[in-house]
Amino acid sequence: MVKETTFYDALGVSPSATDQELKKAYKTGALKFHPDKNRGNPDAEAKFKEISHAYEVLSDSQKRAIYDQYGEAGLEGGAGGGGGMAAEDLFAQFFGGGGAFGGGGLGGMFAGGMPNRGPPKARTIHHTHKVSLEDIYKGKVSKLALQRSIICTKCEGRGGKDGAVRRCSGCDGQGMKTMMRQMGPMIQRFQTVCPDCNGEGEIIKEKDRCKACGGKKTVVDRKVLHVHVDRGVRSGTKVEFRGEGDQAPGVQAGDVVFEIEQKPHPRFTRKEDDLLYRADIELVTALAGGTIYIEHLDDRWLTVEIQPGEAIAPGKYTHQPLISQPRTHC
């Protein structure tokens, strides 16, 4: 016998309802009370959130068992409590992407409806690419190698022989199990790694594991990318390679991002699009005039003439247009 029936009542089903009956009830209620279909109706929005929260709990076998035995109080402080999935996210997960109740999802069912979020994306690989001031002045294409994870081609990302991979029944494929501990009048809920599947959510017999990836579904791959260092590029500029990062089954391939960082230079410093050169000259040159020779970044020698009688003081700047950096629009 269940402790309370509030969640079942919200969906309009009995405590003995099957998973299919729960799905049908949620689908009917979510479509009826969705905010996009009931704009400006706070009661409908509240009802939409109520049935969404009820379905989130009752559709999870572990949460439903806890709710049936202890009521909503038993869910507090854990994944089934106030920190659960948002109602809109649950709706998108249930209907989006060609789910169980339709071909193309419900992205355009309501005016201004939610876009299809699509599968999650693998992590972005970040690298710093240090370049010399000479390379920035002239421009360069760098070949950079990196290691990434790609889907195993031997097992096509299954991890084992076709049909040998099964969903872990101990954690319902979540990789984590919810445990409960009685502490006086209080009930403590906590999550731990499922011991049956070691947190993987799937079980593959050792003899059936893919020999290439060991059941991990991915293998390490070496990838060489050509990074274009444009003339005049500035430190902090990011060069992005979409879809060239890590891969994993069921997710979009991640990106690779290289951030340009200028190395210190022994002769020049850069100020926006100008190059600054510090020249140490003798007193006689400052007073009587003379010539300063500067080796430029492209190996040319530039001459700076100091006229006799020109007032030269420490820290004085003179501008030579030919020394400037190529301009960039990044």
How do the helices and strands line up, and which of them pair or pack?
Elements (H helix, E strand, L loop, with lengths): L5 H6 L7 H15 L8 H17 L2 H10 L16 H9 L29 E7 L1 H6 L1 E12 L14 E2 L8 E8 L2 E8 L8 E2 L14 E12 L8 E4 L14 E7 L5 E4 L2 E4 L5 H6 L1 E6 L5 E6 L24
Parallel strand pairs: 1-9
Antiparallel strand pairs: 2-7, 3-6, 4-5, 8-9, 10-11, 12-13
Helix pairs in contact: 2-3, 3-5
Describe the structure.
This protein is α+β, with helices and mostly antiparallel strands. The chain is built from 7 helices and 13 strands. A 3-stranded mixed beta sheet has the order 1-9-8. β10 and β11 form a beta hairpin. The radius of gyration is 32 Å and the shape is elongated. The model is unreliable at 77-83 and 97-116 (pLDDT under 50).
Q: Give the amount of beta strand, in percent.
A: 15-25%
Helix % is: 10-25%
Low-confidence stretches: 77-83, 97-116
Q: Output the radius of gyration.
A: 32 Å
Report the strand count: 13
Structural class: alpha+beta
What oligomeric state is this? single chain
Biggest β-sheet description: 3 strands, mixed
Shape: elongated
Number of helices: 7
Summarize the helix and strand pattern as letters: HHHHHEHEEEEEEEEEEHEE
Average residue-wise pLDDT:
81
Strand order of the largest sheet: 1-9-8
Distance between the termini: 67 Å
